[in-house]
Amino acid sequence: MSQERPFIIPIFLPHAGCPHQCVFCNQAAITGIKQKDQILKDVGKGIREFLSYKTDQKRPVQISFYGGNFLGLEKEKIVVLLKEANSFVMAGEVDNIRFSTRPDTIDTERLDLIKDFPVSTIELGVQSMDDYVLSESRRGHTSTDTEDAVKHLKKRNYEIGVQMMIGLPGDDDNKAIQTAVSLTALCPDFVRIYPTVVLKGSPLSVWYKRGDYSPLPLDDCVSLAKNIHGIFAKKGIPVIRMGLQASEDLDNGASIVAGPYHPAFGHMVLSEIFLDKAVDILKNEKIFSDDITITVNPRSISKMRGLNNRNIQFLKERFSISSINIDGDASLGEEELAIT
Ligand code: SF4
User: Fold this and answer.
1) pTM for this one?
2) Domains, the chain
3) Which pLDDT belongs to residue 73?
C-alpha cells in the first residue's frame, strides 16, 4: 500500500450488483443511502463535491465504490462508472480507483473488462473461509471462490483487501480464527474485520426475533477481534478497520436491532491489545511497585488508557497499584510501550 493514506472519495452503491441479500446485510441501513439508481446518475457530481473537501493537496486521491458487488453490475454500468471516475484521473484530480466486490465475481472476463481503467485496489467481501458459515449466511459462494479470486488478482498485480466478519450464523471462535489463518495464507495487502450486527431490514433481524440467531456480546466480540488482529499482525498484514463505520443511524440505534455495535469498536480492540501488553510486562518483568509510569507514543495514549480509563482501572486492581501515570514519547513506535 502507498505509505500515505489516500484521500478517499466514497461512492456508495447500496446492493448494486448483488445477486441476492446476504442474511446479515442491509446496506441502506449502514450507509443511510437508499437511492441506488439516483447515485448511478450522480456519480460525477458526488465526486466533484467530495473533491471540494480536500484540503491537503499532496495526498493521493482515490475514488472508492463501496456498499455493493461492483463486478456483479451489468457490464455497461461497470464501464459507465469507471469511465466517469477515469475522467477525474485523466484530469489529474484523482490518482486511482478502488472498489469492493464478491469473490465469485472475479473472473478473466470481468478483469479484462476493467483492465484499461486505473483501478489499483480491489476489496473482496470474503466474510468467512468456512463453507458451512458461508452457506448459513446465504453468501452464495465458497472459500474456494475466494482462493481463486485472490490468485486472479495477484496475477494482475492488484492491491488486495479482504473483509471478514465475526459472529456470523454458524460461526464460532475457532472458525473465525481459522478464517484469519486461511486469509493470512493468501497474503492480502490489508484486512477489515467487521462484527456481525443485526441490522433492521436484514433477514438476520427476522431470525433474531424468532430466536434463531444470537449475536456475540460486545466484550466477546472485542476479544475475538483482538485475537484475529494478532494473527494478521504476526504476518505483517495491516488491519485497516475494525467495526462498522459510525453513522448517525447506527449511533442512535435507528438501524440496529441488536448486536455488538460500538462507534469506537476498533479503539476498544486496540485498547485491549495495549492492556495485554501492559499485563505481560508487569507479570514477566515482575514489576512490583505502587507507582508506575507507562510510556507510549503520544498517538497511543487513549488506547493505553482504554475507554473511560478502563485499562488503568483494571491494572490498578489486578496488580494493586495506587498510581499509574501515562506519558507520551514520540520516539516509541505506535504499538510499543515501556513501563517504569
Ligand atoms: S453482503 Fe455484499 S453481496 Fe451480500 S447483500 Fe450485502 S452488499 Fe450484496
Assistant:
1) 0.91
2) 7-261 (3.20.20.70), 271-339 (no CATH)
3) 95
